[in-house]
Amino acid sequence: MNNPGDPVTLRHPLRMALLWCLLFVGVVACATFVPQQGWNASFGPVVPHDNFPADCSLCHTGSDWHTLRADFQFDHEQRTGVALAGAHRTASCLMCHNDRGPVQQFAAQGCSGCHEDPHQTRLGRSCGDCHNESTWQPREAIALHDRTRFPLVGAHAAVACFRCHAGAQVGNFAGATAECSACHQADLARTTNPNHTLLGYSQDCQQCHVPLGWKPARFAHPESFPLTNAHAGRLCVECHTTPNAFQGQSSACASCHTDNYAGTTAPGHAAAGFGTDCAQCHDTRTFRTANWSHPGSFALTFGHAGRDCTACHIGQVYAGTPTTCNGCHMSSYQSAQNPNHVAGGYPTDCQSCHNTAAWRGAGLGHPASFPLTNAHARACTACHTTPGVYTGQNPACVSCHLTTYQNTTNPPHVSFQMSQQCQDCHGTTVWSNGTFQHTFPITSGEHRNMACFDCHNNASNRVAFSCIDCHEHRQTKMNSEHQGVNNYVWASASCYQCHPNGRH
Predict the structure, then answer these.
(1) 195 — phi, psi (to 5°)?
(2) Which of 78, 285, 370, 478 is the most exposed place for a label (fewest CB within 10 A)?
(3) 440, 496 in Cβ contact below 8 A?
(4) What is the value of pTM for the model shown?
């Protein structure tokens, strides 16, 4: 019998049987094949019972020594304070309790006290990091592998361990390298599209490949010709047509798109002498719907924008097209009747009145000498009543408003001989709210808010005014108050001459 203090070896028959059980039975406890109280003869001879209780009837029946009591029960946790979990619950008692030594001595060593370490301590002594008491199979191996320098991603997660770890089938996981070529050297050698060996490609596969799938490979194209939009995701041989030749490829658009250039008819690129630098009009999103920057001297805005080139460039002739408005719009100019542009002598420079947003609703810049503000912002024919005549119009107010001037009675403009310069009292906002500034200060003090006819009471001469007709101005009273005043005369003009402010 081994010394309980010696290292665990294979010399003891019981130890040898235990190791065979663990290595080849694997996922189930050894005691699964024999009763928990029994003993398998393949384990070797039964260990001596020197340290067992002297009362044999605790385990054996009275008939023979090979039959144990069927009603044998032992509450391990209650009797010893140690609970048996998982496969340990069904293991044979003698697997742990035998004459190799006190069971406490081996239990203090943890898993290695009973289980030989197939990993040869390379994975540490804490078996519980990968195994549990229910099954010897490792758990969460993928997650545990992520703690290494080579996380298992994509196809690598489905590969058997021994494909990378040659000793994995006997528990040896040491010595695996993270270099791609260690596993994929054969893939590198047999690849012909393109030929990796011939072209001297790097053995660092991850520069082009990802673990999610060997195909398609990804390659960082030079920044001088980025593969964007329609250029992206295409096979290399679509542009690099010579097998295994990837150097010296022209980056000019025409090197791939000459056929498109020659076959385009709307507009005909070759006939129009368009450049072969496709990027001037096209991008990599779609070859159709080109976008060409028109010269700044004739920007295509609003109604000019978004039109087919041939709408202006008749016959697909793109040189020498006039930039003047009448070069395209002369027929519109000649047919315009409201107003008649020809009869009115309008200039053919359409942009003086029109813009590219809308042809109708032209905005004419009226002369600064007569700005069209507020109510004057009307249709041309409202003032220019002679059809097609827009010159020589009199800017005086009465040329349009004489009838209004003559018919006004409050106050009567004619009899008051009021000025015909309507702007002296009226503005262009509203006609009915004239403002007349009377000679100061006849509208102040007691004269405030008096009606015009209170003073201008001569129906035959509204310009004349009366001061002496007021109830306060009796002649007898005024004669008495003005005794001794030089040049005193009982007349309105004299009153105003001495009392221009209406005061004593």
Answers:
(1) -75, 105
(2) 78
(3) no
(4) 0.38
55-110 pLDDT, tens digit each: 888 888 877 777 778 887 778 888 888 899 988 988 887 788 777 778 888 888 88
Picking from 222, 215, 263, 214, the residue whose alpha carbon sits closest to that of residue 239 is 222
Please count the CA atoms within 13 angstroms of the CA of 459 that sit on its side-chain side.
0
Instruction: Please report the pLDDT score of residue 37 as a whole number.
Output: 59
Q: DSSP code of 256?
A: H
With 0-12 / 13-18 / 19 or more C-beta atoms within 10 angstroms meaning exposed / middle / buried, residue 341 is buried
User: Taking a C-beta distance cutoff of 8 angstroms, is the pair 176, 151 a contact?
Assistant: no
CA dist., res. 422 & res. 373, Å (int): 15
Q: What is the pLDDT of residues 431-448, one digit of tens each?
A: 887 887 776 667 777 777
Angstrom distances, CA of residue 329 to CA of 300, 315, 325, 356: 15, 18, 6, 12
User: How do the residues of the chain divide into helix, strand and coil, expressed in percent and rounded to 5?
Assistant: 35, 0, 65
CA distances from 149 to 76, 154, 172, 203, 324 (A): 44, 16, 18, 19, 73
CA within 13 Å, CB half, 5:
0
Q: Which residue has the tokens 């964007």?
A: 228
Residues 413 and 339: their CA atoms lie apart, in Å, by 35
CB 106 within 8 A of CB 114: yes
The residue extents of the domains of the chain are 13-129, 179-212, 363-384+395-437, 445-498
Give the helix ranges, DSSP H, for 30-111. 76-80, 93-96, 103-107
**What torsion do the CA atoms of 346, 347, 348, 350 make, to the nearest 10 degrees?**
-90
Token couple for 87: 């496969």
**pLDDT tens per residue across span 136-177:** 888 788 888 888 888 998 888 888 888 888 888 888 887 788
Dump strand ranges (E) for 10-66.
Answer: none
Go through the chain and tell me how many residues it has.
Answer: 504
Rounded-to-integer distance, Cα 425 and Cα 437, Å? 8
Residue 406 binned pLDDT confidence (cut-offs 50, 70, 90): very high
Which tokens sit at 178? 């993270």
At position 113, the amino acid (one-letter code) is G
Three-state DSSP state, 268:
strand
pLDDT in tens, 227-279: 889 898 788 888 888 887 787 788 898 888 999 899 888 788 888 888 888 88
Three-class SS of residue 93?
helix
CA separation for the pair 18, 12 (Å, rounded): 10
CB 487 within 8 A of CB 494: yes
